[in-house]
Amino acid sequence: MALEDAKTQIDQAFTREDLKGPSFENAFGGATSFLRRRYTKDLTGVDIAVTGVPFDQAVTNRPGTRLGPRAIREASTLQPYDPPYGWDFDVLSEFAIADYGDLAFDYGHVSQFPDTLTAHIRGILDAGAASVVLGGDHYISFPILKAYAEKYGPISLLHFDAHSDTWPDDDMTRIDHGTMFYKAVKSGVIDPATSVQVGIRTTNPDTMGVTTIDAREVHEKGPVAAVEKIKAVLGDRPTYLTFDIDALDPAYAPGTGTPVWGGLTSAQASIMLRDLAGINIMGGDVVEVSPPFDTTGATAIAGAHVATEILCLLGARMRKSK
After folding, report:
1. Which of 16, 145, 230, 295, CA to CA, is 20 to 30 A from 186?
2. How far apart, in Å, are the Cα atoms of 17 and each of 25, 140, 185?
């Protein structure tokens, strides 16, 4: 295929015949699946399923992250023409990647949401695929992690964020996007000794034993040094990567519920995500994109690139395991 195919290709989310390869559909038109992947509920032969979770009940300040999956998909339409930059393989051509659509849930029964999401991710994993999730507020990571822990045991967490999200909360039924990793440690879902948080720049006296690389350390020592430290902690453990878009400074991602100054630059994040190639990643998410607070679309663009890098990290792991 070549750019000239844009004259005839349209709505590749529905009309493309396979799950592999680039797309040259006009970026400004057509159905906006993630990276123009085919929408399907059939996971037969799928390596990676991208799914949206439009949930933002548990926000600290600015709502709107329920619109994040839609905005990230739209922003991603600029990316599927070429292999992702900086990688020595093309994840779009080598692996079967599907857009699995969004999670269906009853917004009137919020208490049912966590189990509904866990079952959704469990279905993806049972089909033999990995998941890349577009959020949604950050609470969604906890129900997702439960499904991963069912399959892999206590999993290592690689967490990019401005906040540690380990504030104490022993009521496991509360839905709160600032306490879910406290609960994940307490319930044995993640292994804190082999987990890392990156970009932190808010006070929390108890990080539950998770290694912290705060934003200042990344600024002072550089992203390459940060990756070396991350890899030393993770080792070869099965790992789940979660990227709260407010890990980035508000100058790079203003459209988020809880912006905090002094954060990572998009360049630092891109270097770290690329250099993490080789970690034993099993799945990941990008959360907290709140498009109503960023009319430029920069935050959604960042979210789309983060999700693409997670795809590449998964592809790198899958290539190594062949």
Report:
1. 230
2. 14, 32, 43
